[in-house]
Amino acid sequence: MALKIYNANPGFGTPMTEEETKNFLATADKLNVHIGTIDENGDPNVHPAWYYYDNDNNKMYVGTGKGSKKVQNLKKSNVVYYCIDQPTSPYKGVRGKAKVRVSEDVSYDMPIYEKMMLKYFGDLEQPGSHFLLMLLYLLFCMIFIAGI
């Protein structure tokens, strides 16, 4: 899926180019992605989550609990809506809709979790980071969003 650039607020600012969008996703410091899924009743659920954007592969990875509501919803429909906004001026953000894949392959997921933890903690030697990695290993899975 090719990257599609939309101006969410016509007449207010200019849309980012594809390069600016990828750079924003790769360098946005400690911003959460908000993932929207649809539940069994057809109601929307919005979930904040950590993410890691792989600029080389144009994929976003979102970590979540294996039994989380978003994973339950994604087992019924593998479509998400997502939003990452910078909360300070100059305001900018990325929004989209994508098909996803949920992975519970620990050997594939753990290196991505380590990159995600580096993004949010700064290093893997923070107090509690080894414990958190163990929890991630046991309880978490990875959502792959391709073709941002």
Explain the overall architecture.
It contains 4 helices and 7 strands; from the N terminus they run αββββαββααβ. The model has no long low-confidence stretch (mean pLDDT 81). The chain has helices spanning 18-27, 69-76, 106-121, 129-139; strands at residues 33-38, 44-49, 51-54, 59-65, 79-86, 92-103, 140-146. It is an alpha+beta fold. The chain is globular. A hairpin with a 4-residue loop joins strand 3 and strand 4.
How would you summarize what this structure contains?
With about 150 residues, this protein is α+β, with helices and mostly antiparallel strands.
CATH architecture level-2 label: Roll
Number of E-state strands: 7
Q: Order of SSEs, N→C?
A: HEEEEHEEHHE
Q: Specify the biggest β-sheet.
A: 7 strands, antiparallel
**Distance from first to last alpha carbon:** 8 Å
Specify the structural class: alpha+beta
Give the tally of structural domains.
Answer: 1
| Number of contiguous helices | 4
Helix content: 25-40%
Oligomeric category = single chain
Shape: globular
Strand content: 25-35%
Give the name of the CATH superfamily.
Answer: Electron Transport, Fmn-binding Protein, Chain A
CATH overall fold name: Pnp Oxidase, Chain A
List the helices and strands and how they pair.
Elements: H1 18-27, E1 33-38, E2 44-49, E3 51-54, E4 59-65, H2 69-76, E5 79-86, E6 92-103, H3 106-121, H4 129-139, E7 140-146
